[in-house]
Amino acid sequence: MAQPNFDPSGFYEFDLSRGAVRTRDGERVFVLSDDVVAPLINALVKQGDLSTLTKLGERLGSTASASLAGRVSELSPEQVIGHAAAVLALYGWGRLQSERWGDAFVVTITGLRDLDPMQLATSALLSGLLGKLAGAELSCVPVGDERFVVVHPSIAKQVSSWVTSGSNIGEIARRLVATEVA
Amino acid sequence: MSSSVAKLEALLSRIQANRTQPRLVPVNTALIALPQAPSLVEVEEEDDEPVITTDEIDASSDPDVLQVVTEEFEEARTGETGVVPLTPIPAARTTPPSSPPAFSMPPPVSFRPGSPSPVTTGSQAGLLPSAPPKAPSSHPPAELRAERISSPSIQPPSSPIARAISEAPLRAMPATFGKLISRALSLRPR
């Protein structure tokens, strides 16, 4: 199986004469400390509007998609997740990994717990990221400390209620059944 | 004239006797400047101690003084009198220091996390970190673990998670990301 081959070299360009940092795609970015980002995230969570983080996730997904050769849907899961993980890491949004529990597709992200205790902002970020890569609308429901189960938005609320009632990832995977034959 | 020579001899004797006496430093300076400067060293006695002043005198009015001083100095410089050769005092800088260069913004710096060292297009290397940050691995850590649900090492067999895993059907990893997502989005509550 082909290995992920994301090239991080030259990803950022520091233009000191203009005081700007840009990615190699030309997008201007800002370097912020977590002391600044955490209050911003908390404010967004309190307002209940996480569209900004979803949009950020979509941008990261576009970057990851652009770094892949070929149609994303036809590439191996390892390649796609590998590139997505590399882009997330370059932006400082933790370490992305993936698992499969039965038919459930689960992603884990570490290194953001202190930044986003409720995992809601991270959920929005991952939903945007994976949704962009998949070309479909999806939801990443937080389960436990680091896991997010990828489901259709129509059942996200149901899955979230299972989590609230104390179900763990194994139990949630057992409660779900695929309606599409593999 | 003879009085001046005697004074100079006394001075040179004093120099020879005590080479490190701080008071002699100005004398050295004056002696070095003597052949070139229009002023002469005048040795005077105060309380029977020779002192040195650098009051200007007209060398042309007493050329013999200049001659004697020069000869004595040469003897001292060449070691005939045992005096350590004098070290010329560096000339004072007469040219004003150049004005500080105007501040100019450095050129854009290209930072490449994957390269072995930061790349700069200008001379502003000092603005860069001393060591390049560790580049993300070319093999990202993310990996799909298709067998994760059947791994007995996750939880003890008696745990709720292990029971749930044992009851969950094992599925092969889809070959493509599209199929993986499609199947995940087809999940519905039992």
The domain tally of chain A reads 1
Helix-residue proportion of chain A: 40-55%
Termini distance of chain A? 20 Å
Strand content of chain A: 15-25%
Biggest beta sheet summary of chain B: 2 strands, antiparallel
Report the sheet with the most strands of chain A, covering strand number, pairing sense and barrel closure.
4 strands, antiparallel
Radius of gyration of chain B, Cα only, in angstroms? 45 Å
| H/E element order of chain B | HHEEHEEEHHE
Major sheet strand order of chain B: 1-2
Percentage of helical residues of chain B?
25-40%
User: Termini distance of chain B?
Assistant: 127 Å
> What letter string, H or E per element, gives the SSE order of chain A?
EEEHHHEEHEEHHE
Please work out how many helical segments of chain A DSSP would assign. Answer: 6
Mean pLDDT of chain B, nearest integer?
Answer: 53
State the low-pLDDT regions of chain A, or none.
none
Rg calc of chain A = 17 Å
Helix/strand/pairing category of chain A: alpha+beta
| CATH class term of chain A | Alpha Beta
CATH T-level topology of chain A:
Muramoyl-pentapeptide Carboxypeptidase, domain 2
Q: What's the SSE blueprint?
A:
The complex is a heterodimer of chains A (182) and B (190).
Chain A: E1 12-15, E2 20-23, E3 28-29, H1 34-47, H2 51-66, H3 77-90, E4 95-101, E5 104-110, H4 120-134, E6 139-143, E7 147-151, H5 153-164, H6 169-175, E8 176-178
Chain B: H1 2-17, H2 24-33, E1 42-46, E2 49-53, H3 63-78, E3 109-111, E4 119-120, E5 144-145, H4 160-167, H5 177-185, E6 187-189
Antiparallel strand pairs in B: 1-2, 3-4
Helix pairs in contact in B: 1-3
